[in-house]
Sequence to fold (724 residues):
Amino acid sequence: MMNDMRKIERDTAVSDIKIHARDVQVFYGDTHAIKDVSVDILDKTVTAFIGPSGCGKSTFLRCLNRMNDTIDIARVKGDIQIDGNDIYHPSIDPVQLRAKVGMVFQKPNPFPKSIYDNIAYGPRIHGLAKTKAELDEIVERSLRRGAIWDEVKDRLHEPGTGLSGGQQQRLCIARAVATEPEVLLMDEPCSALDPIATAQVEDLIDELRRNYSVVIVTHSMQQAARVSQNTAFFHLGNLVEYRETGQIFTNPEDPRTESYITGRIG
Amino acid sequence: MTTIVFVTLFCISVLGYVLNRQAATKLRADGTRLHSVPGYHGLYSLLSTLVPVAVLIVLWLIFQGPLIDRFTMSGLPAGSLGELDAGGRQLVLAEIKSISRGRIFGDPEAWKVDAADRYAWMHAISRWMLLGIVIVASLGIVGFARSRVAANFRARHGVEHITSGLMLFCSTIAIFTTLGIIAALLFESIRFFERVPITEFFFGLNWEPQIPLREDQIAAEGAFGWIPVFLGTLVITVVALFLAVPVGLLSAIYLNEFAPSRLRAVAKPVLEILAGVPTVVYGFFAILVVAPAIRSFGASLGIPVSPNTALAAGSVMGIMLIPFISSFTDDALSAVPKSLRDGALALGATRAETVLNVLFPAAIPGIVGGILLAISRAIGETMIVVMAAGLIASLTINPLDSVTTVTVQIVTLLIGDTSFDNPKTLAAFALGMMLFIVTLIINVFALRIVRKYREAYD
Ligand SMILES: Nc1ncnc2c1ncn2[C@@H]1O[C@H](COP(=O)(O)OP(=O)(O)O)[C@@H](O)[C@H]1O
Ligand SMILES: [Mg+2]
Fold:
């Protein structure tokens, strides 16, 4: 498995920095969950966050679309910029920000509405479509981007909760894509899926890289190796190592990274 | 005496516990492997003595009174009862009993004194017999249980059987009581419908349950159409819901989604205190505060308002229902998985949009279930309407009129000197039956809906 990785082509050379984070700290009450994390995430790239559970991967991911604001006890410090704009600046509306930074969760969470309404929800609240025809077009485009159009095009008005787990997750990806985000955050998007659905979602992630900057949290190192170009290893709230994926797996610099990928901690 | 019997039983059972436990401990000390630990052997003896003999004692105490009464009466010298009817016999028996307790009025006949002696004697005999039987039976069971102590005796399973039997018995009590209540209602309703045609009850538009008590009394023939009464219940329920549903819903949504956690920590218990206020206190509130306020407000607008309005009773009942609806709504909102809320927020929805478009639709089944249960409470609520609604049944849907309700009518029909064989009193049971059926139907619907939404997110 590990040997295969080196064969994967990695074209990270020509990308701009999309997210620029410096000295980020997160506290839950008195718990210091993220300690001094600085990272540059590239555009049109898949960046994987790996690390033992509880090390703060999800917490850091939630800093990037300010979902931590919805947790009462969470406090975020430090500087996070997307395209050079400080996203924690008072003039930034987190609600607008979240339309630009989409998120996909661990467990597929379609709304108890029709497939169509699931996708149309974001565009509707943000006023992205002026006419029904435009909305139809957005829905179709998003479902195509989510690689699920062919499976649902004849049942758009059936409930989204009636789909299989893998289809639901792709529906959620399509839903996130529908608000035309620039960054897609995915928190262990495949951990509730079977291997076949996982493979489909992974293909989709690779596809999404063309248009978005994708950040994916995963606890499967194989998955990180398969889909990502860059990998960040977190441990106990620290960012230990952040490098090109092939290198981090074949030639880790930090002993903690090495123990993790060889299975000694985790 | 009864205390002595129970104490004896208890002592003997404890003795059985000790005996069995010691025997089992000894077996084990001799090196045998026991199926059950000694404590279970002890418990087995204790329970198998205590439970059946206690049941025997209770049955004995229940039946000894009526049996002794019967023996006393049948043992009277022939002809002493003469032509007495059932009521007269009752009086004789009561006199005999009071003589036997030493309370003698006047100069009773000799045969009554004799009977009183026999009555007292039979009671004494019965008590001693009971004590004897309890001692013999419990010692017998203790001996039997002791003889079963052996390495491979499954005392543990025996204890299991006895305790589960006990639990089964307790759980059937509630069911049988309910069945008993239904049977009583049904029986009396049937007697009512023998006197008043069923069509008159269901379709009649007049409710005037006045019946001449004596032959020569001049009074209107009673009319028993339940429609105006039920309409009154409906009007008050509708008024109550108009107040309780929006206030309950919105307060629950606010507390669940918007309130800072410190406010929520204070406001939620306060809201729940409302549910603990006795309904009679709400009744006071309705009479003393709400009704006069409505009346003077109506007067200032020049609208005629009757002293007891459906509006006053209904709105106070609505206040009573607020915590009910808000706690159901709160539960339903909390039951919506956090992932749905996060999903909507992550798409850039505001909190209000999230609640309105995603959480609320997902919670609707639970909320509807809560509202239905609130309706059935409103229909069955008695105290507030007895105090604040009127007594005269009028066919109206104007909330500023005085209306009466099913529960109020039941109360007034049964208050005071009543005999249970005229339609006036029996009508109360027919109304009770209808109330029972209506609330039952609503509850069944409500529980179904509630259960359905519970399953939805597993
Ligand atoms: N909502 C929360 N409230 C309090 N503590 C939290 C919360 N979410 C996460 N934490 C704590 O923050 C740390 C990091 O958690 P998380 O980011 O979920 O880790 P990961 O996603 O890497 O498994 C853990 O110690 C966890 O207990
Ligand atoms: Mg996580």
Notes: Strands of chain B lie at 207-208, 223-224.
